[in-house]
Amino acid sequence: MDFDFKLPDLGRPESSRPKRVAEAIRNELTLLLLQRVADPRLSGATISKVEVSPDLKAAKIYITAARHEEQQRTMAGVYKAKGFFRSHLAKTLNLRYTPELHFYYDDLAQEAERVEQLLTELERERNRGPA
Prior knowledge:
single chain, alpha+beta, GMP Synthetase, Chain A, domain 3, 3-stranded mixed β-sheet, 3 strands, 47% helix
């Protein structure tokens, strides 16, 4: 009598390779942005996070701009340099397949700043006392 358990948590453990590849992609693209990219639209861009699919064929790259007003300009520069980024990754990373790069704007910093302002405003109102 054989039992075949197919419960979600009893499978193979999650591989750490996608995390390592994501970190390598983040490091390489950060170096590219700092040293080799000549496009002025990307001068204040930083990479906040990279997520790689389990099969290593797709990567989500989250970009932040120095100022929120430059979001569209930065994303236009990123899409223009997409092929350059991918070819550089193909040359430097030793992977069977170079992941397809998908870029997203990460507005987490602006959202955190907005929440911080709201909390500061609440604190000021509390300190004023009852009206």
